[in-house]
Amino acid sequence: MRLTTEEFLTNTEICPMIAAVNKWEAVEKCGDVDCKMVNVVFGDICTISDIVKKLKDMGKQVFVHVDLITGFASKEICVDFIKKYTESDGIISTKPYLIKRANELDLFTIQRFFMLDFITYANVVKHVHVTNPNVVELMPAGLSKVIRYLCAEIDRPVVAGGLVLDKDDVIGALSAGAIAVSTTNQALWSIG
Fold first, then answer.
1. CA–CA gap between residue 131 and residue 109 (Å, rounded)
2. What pLDDT, on a 0 to 100 scale, did the predictor assign at position 190?
3. Secondary structure E strands in 66-185
4. For residues 50, 52, 56 and 60, what is the CA-based torsion angle, rounded to 10 degrees?
5. Taking a C-beta distance cutoff of 8 angstroms, is the pair 81, 94 a contact?
6. Is the CB of residue 161 less than 8 Å from the CB of residue 183?
7. Which CATH superfamily is domain 17-188 in?
8. Helix axes 144-153, 167-175, angle to 10 degrees
């Protein structure tokens, strides 16, 4: 059964931190923290199923960043692989066509954007309307003013991620309207 946006929002109310795991040691640490959701930002075609299973066995909701999995091409078939061969709840991608394919396969979708300039800002609004992701992730998390403006302009929950250095970055992003913060910084995973 597909994770709903409402369930995602409920989980972010319980704990606004999303653990982003970038190595096996971080996967192991997830069993010791309260955050319910985990973004997988490492692995390869041979290990991704095992990584997801380990996290699912811990009771976590898991989202695979398909752009970062070694051995995956930037083609829709990688999303089909995630659906068929893993227990992942959904995907993360910067690529609109992968988000569209995941929606077709009934996977939860998080579309990630790197905020570089005003052109990028304008493209967020355009792409969200075209690809219809469940959630939008904006990077870096320290751009609270941009987060505030985009939260008012797009009709999707916003997660902030990237360059999360300390608790102030978390508080700034949440205060600006982000519903959660994704980080590989394990020291921040328990500050819900």
1. 10
2. 86
3. 90-93, 108-114, 135-139, 158-161, 180-183
4. 150
5. no
6. yes
7. Aldolase class I (3.20.20.70)
8. 30
Can you point out the beta strands (E) in 59-115? Answer: 61-65, 90-93, 108-114
Distance CA 115, CA 32 (A): 32
Residue boundaries of the structural domains of the chain:
17-188
pLDDT for position 192: 57
Q: Is the peptide bond before 140 cis (omega within 30 degrees of 0)?
A: yes
Pairwise CA distance, residues 97 & 146, whole Å? 25
Which residue type occupies 90? Answer: G
CA angle 46, 50, 53 (to 5 degrees): 150
pTM: 0.93
Cis peptide bond upstream of 157, omega within 30: no
pLDDT at residue 118 in the model: 87
Write out residues in the chain with pLDDT < 50, as ranges.
Answer: none
Strand partners, 129: none
Place of tokens 């519903």: 179
Task: Measure the CA–CA gap between 183 and 140, rounded to whole angstroms.
Answer: 10
| Calpha distance 181→121 (Å, rounded) | 19
